[in-house]
Amino acid sequence: MAVGPAIGGFIVSASYSMAFILGGLAQILFALLVLLWVRETRPSTVEVPGPLRWERGYEGILRDRRFLAFCGFYTLAGMAYALMMVLLPVYVKENFGVPERLYGFIMTTNAAMVVGLQVGITRLAGRFRELPVLAVGSLFYALGVGSVAFGRSFPAFLLECGA
């Protein structure tokens, strides 16, 4: 996860077509690996106690207002994530001249921080209730996304997206 974006940046700087071809081939390889070697682990029948049974169709889900609210807020967070993954490379290249080969290092720094900090942050967060932890995490992510608007150079974007 941490090295892939840097390699991708170098491939894209050589050829966008090559990046898409290699990405497609990698996806085909993954599909073949799943098709040939991954087996279903779920039992064929599962007995669920009466109170935990789901109602047929979407009726039960659509009555769960808290779940629907969570889905709505999660969608907003996903939009911020998509903004960073889809538009950031174009934004930094077109507006600030950050080449693809350097942009890959921005994502590598982000992935390395996730890998390096995930265990400690998860242990710390486990001491608190889930909902406030999710809210604080989303706040930090929002600050990171918003901070991109103030970046003007490769080191600034490296710091903002890595943090």
Strand composition percent? under 5%
Shape field: globular
**How much helicity do the residues have?**
over 70%
Mean pLDDT across every amino acid position? 87
Content-based structural category: mainly alpha
Number of strands: 0
Order of helices and strands: HHHHHHH
How many helices? The count is 7
- Rg calc: 21 Å
Q: Would you identify the regions where 5 or more consecutive residues have pLDDT less than 50? A: none
The N- and C-terminal alpha carbons lie at a distance of: 16 Å
Total domain units: 1
Instruction: Report the major sheet.
Output: none
Structure explained in plain terms:
- The structure is a single chain.
- The protein has 163 residues and is an all-alpha fold.
- It has helices at residues 4-14, 16-37, 59-63, 65-96, 100-125, 130-147, 154-162.
- It has one domain (4-37, 65-162).
Summarize this structure briefly.
The protein has seven helices and no strands.
Question: Main traits of this protein?
Answer:
single chain; 163 residues; mainly alpha; 7 helices
